[in-house]
Design brief:
By secondary structure, the chain is an alpha/beta fold. The protein contains eight helices and 15 strands. The strands form five sheets. A five-stranded parallel β-sheet has the order 7-2-1-14-15, with helices on both faces. Helix 2 runs parallel beside helix 3 and helix 5 packs across helix 7. The longest helix is centred in the N-terminal third of the chain and has 21 residues. The two termini are 24 Å apart.
Length: 299
């Protein structure tokens, strides 16, 4: 970290402007240290990306700095640190517009060179991960969105969110809607923005309804123990991930850090993630810590 703009080697130095948190912090580990109590057993760093292409420069920056952050905390605090990565493989691979409504298919529904799109690109991510593991000595654990959305707790929180109208203005302040979708069982297309999404309560389950541009009404039962695929967009995913990390921390006596690209910093963390966690009943001391990777800019 450098704060003296008159003595900067621009080829070798990462520069943090001498304002804000950089003005009161000499080391990032100092921001984590207060949470490390005698009962804490480990620190979990969580990061994510969409495997819808080869890892680009921004993704490389996030992953490399996440590994470096893990290694730094481990060495500085002399404490176990785990790196956990979420493959957000629910990103769109194909979109069409019909009567002003966008329908999409996901990466998991398409193939590249005979391999499912997301798995094709995940291989490239794994190649990068293996390189970073070798260089840093840091190990990691990966999980796909498919596996994430099957977790009973995740489905439980999604049900709570759907039942609570307050979430519409949190996760979609302009549209005031929930972007929840599930593929048409006949053609595989889903109403991307949840334009036709509705639900009906059936005991502790929900009957989700939508429309397909060709096969009309579609529906599915959302249950904590069901396995039918349900998809939802980033604001919902981020909020539910945060809640899951809190619950896992309580069980494992751990501290969670959500590590994202710098383009996600600022209003998102407070207006979306923290507002969503508060609405789910969590209090500020429980919230995961949030750190951001540097932003790469160019001309």
């Amino acid at each position: 970290m450098s704060k003296n703009f008159n003595n900067i080697n621009t080829k070798k130095t990462v520069v943090y402007p001498p304002v804000g948190i950089a003005n009161i912090t000499r080391d990032l580990a100092d921001l984590v240290k207060p949470r490390v109590s005698p009962s804490i057993k480990t620190i979990n760093i969580h990061s994510s990306a969409q495997p819808n292409s080869f890892p680009h420069l921004g993704t490389l920056t996030i992953l490399m700095s996440a590994f470096a952050f893990d290694k730094h905390l481990k060495e500085t605090l002399n404490f176990p640190v785990n790196l956990k990565f979420e493959y957000d493989n629910n990103s769109p691979a194909e979109k069409i517009e019909v009567d002003g409504v966008t329908y999409s298919k996901m990466q998991i529904q398409h193939e590249v060179e005979g391999t499912r799109c997301d798995k094709h690109f995940i291989k490239k991510f794994e190649y990068l991960f293996n390189y970073l593991v070798e260089k840093s000595g840091v190990q990691y654990h990966g999980r796909t969105f498919e596996d994430f959305q099957k977790v009973p707790f995740v489905r439980q929180k999604l049900i709570e969110i759907i039942k609570n109208d307050a979430f519409k203005s949190i996760v979609s302040p302009s549209e005031n809607s929930l972007h929840i979708r599930f593929p048409c069982p006949q053609c595989g297309y889903a109403d991307k923005s949840g334009v036709f999404f509705s639900h009906k309560e059936i005991d502790d389950k929900l009957q989700l309804k939508s429309k397909c541009f060709e096969h009309v009404d579609t529906e599915m039962i959302l249950d904590t123990n069901a396995t039918a695929f349900v998809d939802f967009n980033t604001p919902l995913m981020d909020t539910i991930q945060g809640a899951l990390f809190i619950e896992d921390d309580n069980k494992e006596n751990a501290i969670s850090i959500m590590y994202d690209g710098g383009d996600w910093s600022g209003v998102w963390g407070t207006n979306v993630l923290e507002s969503g966690l508060y609405e789910l009943g969590y209090k500020q001391p429980e919230y995961p810590l949030h750190f951001y990777a540097p932003i790469v800019t160019g001309k």
